[in-house]
Amino acid sequence: MLISQENLRAVAVEILLAAGSSGDEPKIVADNLVQANLAGHDSHGIGMLPRYVACVKTAELIPNQHAEVVIDEGPIITVDGRSGYGQVIGQEAMDIGIERARSLGVCTLTIRHSFHLGRIGAWGERCAQAGLVSIHHVNAIGHTGIVAPYRGSDARYSTNPYCCAIPDARAAGPLVLDMATTVMAHGKVRVARNKGETLPEGVLLDGHGRPTTDPEALFSDPAGALRPVGTYKGYGLALVNELLAGILSGGGTCRPETDHHNDTILNNMFSVILDPNRFVEPEFFKSELDSTVTHVTSSLPMNPAEPVLIPGDPERENMAQRQAEGIPIDENSWQLVVDTAASVGLDSQKICALAQSMT
User: Fold this and answer.
1) DSSP conformational letter for 75
2) What domains are there in the chain, each with its CATH number?
3) pTM for the full model?
């Protein structure tokens, strides 16, 4: 199926309203999910709605919450997400951090106990749009681990993403390095399972610690485990993210003691947001940025059809294509969305009519 971004937003808004969201929340959440689909990150797109609604029903996700500032010491801020939608909590927290960084030059901000913050690159992009550099370390609690440490055979923590965004790296937009610290994000394994695809070698261990290419292994009993990207390097970064996000936010780390025994995702995030023009002259920042990006990307490509890119370029390419052609949704993922709509009392035919598939 190919569904236009407008129609996919309409579907998401209807489901979120029926699941108890009100005010601006349905639009904020829907916009964030569809933007992830447009960027090519279907793992963080509309396919998350079934999990969100299931957690609303178990009260692990609480609609209509807002970011609560619990520590405010000038450049140091901690926000409690109160188990609310991460799309709302993240946006409100970033806006607080952006304002403070503009005022003081830098803001060190932590978020604790937000429900799934979604694609972390969205928060880097929000800071970059304000002309600010930002760095984000994330961990997750509330469910058992899904990632095996380097040299380990079973899961001990989550995918613990890292993000760094630098404004004006391209005329079209910022440099946005947004990565899970695993070979593949959890949601991308879910998408592969829904599509009936196998995984590349080196992505996953089964529930007995053996390498496998079957995405179902991650969701089986005993559950398998994702593997860290870059062996010990990715593992090291994941552990740093676990400690910085989990401890400095006060939200806790991924251990059996913090498992809620449900399919919940509570994120903690440690962010540094800064105004680059407080460190160097704006002209120097821009000229060095432009010159360095040009120097790196002018490397003769091994394949002429695949030029050197910077982080953020693939998302911009996906965005242009999917805005024009529509967002692809596989049949299994779409059926889960339709079933989720029915679970909150919506008519399946109405949801499908809203989608008005382009193919």
Assistant:
1) T
2) 1-57+313-359 (1.10.1530.10), 64-182+228-279 (3.30.1370.60)
3) 0.94
